[in-house]
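Q: What would this chain look like folded?
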Amino acid sequence: MDNTLPRNMRIHILGGLIEEITTDDNSTLVTVAYAECPACSQRDQRVRLVVGNRTLIYDRAGNRITAQALQVGMLINAVFSSTMTRSIPPQATAYRIRVVSNPSPENTTEGRIIDIDRQNRSFTIISNTNQTSVIRFIVPENAIIRDIFGRQINFSDLVAGLRVRVRHAGFMTASIPPQTTAFEVQVIK
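A: My prediction, written as structure tokens:
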């Protein structure tokens, strides 16, 4: 499908990192961080790929898979339309996705919240074990957030100064500070 389009109408990315996946009735939206320069290690661009019925998706072995098999933390190669929305991140129709590697196992990190970005549903912590270690956590809508008593709370209840234990993806971006996806946030103090 994508080979029928002129080269200037499609974009190829190598080693893009799936950061978020959302699904509605008609399509799946896959947010991918990638480097414009494949030889660069820093992922400085983002795109939200609109994955529909016509998107060709392959696993590492080259077998066809569905969008439901995609996971946060996977590295992918993708071909998508150069026509994009002006949103942040921009959206584009995905033509082909190939999984390069599966996500790393989960990790747990404890630390104190030093900054909260309510608009982008993220927060930054300083790790308890290394005071120079700062990590930004992206908190998807389906992440579980619990107070000190184990009761589920909202993202809006988190404030700077709280100590938290975060169960998160094993991958981190090469940005400063590094970023990863939080699966569960437990307030511990």
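Residues 107-187 form a domain with the OB fold (Dihydrolipoamide Acetyltransferase, E2P) fold (CATH 2.40.50.320).
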